[in-house]
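protien #1 (seq + structre)
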Amino acid sequence: MMNEEDTELEHDAEQSNPTIDMVDFIQNAEFNKASIMFNDILSDKISDALDQERIAVASNMFNQDDEQLELDLEDEQEGDDDISDEDLELAAQEVEDLVDTEIDDEDEDQ
């Protein structure tokens, strides 16, 4: 017991496949319509392939940026290891000397 609505849905589902429609047009010698269907099918496939490639390229760009940032951070951290304890002590002593000199200069000005 199918009503008209169910029959229309089945008919639409059968005709919704553009490849089958194109073959039907070819069998019925409707070559202009078949050509249009072929171009539409091909256009859709090319568009889908281009979209996928755009996604892949964008994904690679952003992943490379993240990887490069991680590498840069690692290089900075490795660069910090190059400073010896002796260098740190000398820098600290220089800072202390500067602070002491400034304090002495302030005391003399008063």
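ok now protien #2
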Amino acid sequence: MSVRDGKTLSVSVFDPAVAAAVEKGIRGAGLNLNPISDGSSRIRVPIPRPTKETREAMRKVSHFCSSWRAINCCVVADGF
């Protein structure tokens, strides 16, 4: 995977036979992404602008992750 520009990811699939499955997986991940296959082993994934709802969802996830990181640091500090 690489970044083509600030708004597009490029996914290179080693085996072109599984490109359709990769595209379907990206589309079905629930991330509001619509991959575009060029017919071979390259898939472009345009990244949409975040809406108010997606920013709120990201904020909740980032809060959860920072809480989880704090819990893990405490567990490591306690020697578990």
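The chain is about 45% helix and 20% strand.
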